[in-house]
Amino acid sequence: MHVRLSASWTDPRGTVWAAGDTVDVDAVTLAELEEKDMVEQPTGTGSTETTTTTTTTTTTPPKKTDPSKIGPGPSAPPADTKDD
């Protein structure tokens, strides 16, 4: 199968190929190159639609804490009540 490289690559025989070169590879080598994103997708094959994903993060200001509710939580050990 002939594929166009999107990055330089050295084949198993030691031949160095430049980005944009078309090389003849077997299915296993093609899978390895695709896994490394080294193969250009041919024009007209597959989806031509480009999708952009964006993530928006909204920061909510912290709620004010009632001062009467500040203290150890329910799992805190009991206070030391011994007088020395």
Write a compact overview of the structure shown:
This protein is mostly loops. It has one helix spanning 27-35, and strands at 2-4, 9-10, 16-17, 22-24.
Task: Explain how this protein is built.
With 84 residues, the protein is largely without helices or strands. 11% of the residues lie in helices and 12% in strands. The strands form 2 sheets. It has a two-stranded antiparallel ribbon with strand order 1-4. A two-stranded antiparallel sheet has the order 2-3. A hairpin with a 5-residue loop joins strand 2 and strand 3.
Strand content: 5-15%
Biggest sheet, strands in spatial order?
1-4
Q: What's the helix-strand series?
A: EEEEH
Main sheet attributes: strand count, strand direction, barrel closure: 2 strands, antiparallel
Amino- and carboxy-terminal Cα gap: 86 Å
Contiguous low-pLDDT stretches (5 residues minimum) are none
Using the alpha-carbon principal axes, give the shape.
Answer: rod-shaped
Give the total of beta strands: 4
SSE order and pairing:
Blueprint: E1 2-4, E2 9-10, E3 16-17, E4 22-24, H1 27-35
Antiparallel strand pairs: 1-4, 2-3
Write out key terms for the chains shown.
84 residues, little secondary structure, two-stranded antiparallel sheet, two-stranded antiparallel ribbon, rod-shaped
